[in-house]
Backbone:
């Protein structure tokens, strides 16, 4: 009888446990192929995060909102997790092991003859990058672009591609995958050019942020299982092929 009562107690708790783990509200940023696509449920980052959470036994409700709004929702308890952050983004959150690594590169047209051996070489060329790049890439980058004949930052990846492909700047600095996945791959005359990608910056790890330490721990354990099963690489390869992206070194 004692064992029976214990079993009944466990069974009584199962619905509550299932309900608590049934749905994870995941904040996803606005479309940023190949990492996040329209709707937020597909794209390299989104697909990997959803697969990991599913591996952990959760159902996922995706909420696609601007980055700043998603962070506010996470802190206010309106969502349970958010793609993708760095530990410096905000205190008081729990950060997963790296889900992916962004490929920050200095990108030039092959025909331009630009050669970049170190970050300080950027001082010789006109450069464009994304907003707040000077803060992300550190003092050496900030000093180099301060001496550049022209430096600008832009919110739109399409703008960066057009600036480079139409030879308005010598170099753009940003994620190579985002550059290659952007629809703008030709100049105003429809001509396509070969590019050279310089790895002047280390790959940047991106983490999933959680309001719950327990959920973070579940995510990390499931991430290891997803990698061990080969599913992580299968998803990554699918998006590399879809967008014709180079393999991550």
Residues:
């Amino acid at each position: 009888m004692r064992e029976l009562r214990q079993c009944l107690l466990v069974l009584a708790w199962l619905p509550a446990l299932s309900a608590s783990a049934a749905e994870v509200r995941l904040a996803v940023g606005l479309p940023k192929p190949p990492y996040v696509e329209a709707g937020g449920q597909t794209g390299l980052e989104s697909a990997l995060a959803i697969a990991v959470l599913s591996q952990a036994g959760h159902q996922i409700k995706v909420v696609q909102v601007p980055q700043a709004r998603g962070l506010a929702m996470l802190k206010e308890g309106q969502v349970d997790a958010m793609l993708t952050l760095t530990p410096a983004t905000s205190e008081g959150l729990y950060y997963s092991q790296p889900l992916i690594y962004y490929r920050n590169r200095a990108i030039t047209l092959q025909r331009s003859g630009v050669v970049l051996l170190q970050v300080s070489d950027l001082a010789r060329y006109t450069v464009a990058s994304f907003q707040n790049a000077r803060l992300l890439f550190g003092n050496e980058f900030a000093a180099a672009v301060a001496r550049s004949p022209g430096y600008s930052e832009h919110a739109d990846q399409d703008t960066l591609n057009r600036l480079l492909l139409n030879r308005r700047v010598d170099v753009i600095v940003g994620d190579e995958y985002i550059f290659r996945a952007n629809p703008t791959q030709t100049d105003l005359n429809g001509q396509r050019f070969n590019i050279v990608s310089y790895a002047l910056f280390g790959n940047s790890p991106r983490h999933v942020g959680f309001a719950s330490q327990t959920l973070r721990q579940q995510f990390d354990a499931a991430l290891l299982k997803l990698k061990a099963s080969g599913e992580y690489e299968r998803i990554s390869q699918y998006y590399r092929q879809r967008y014709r992206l180079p393999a991550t070194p």
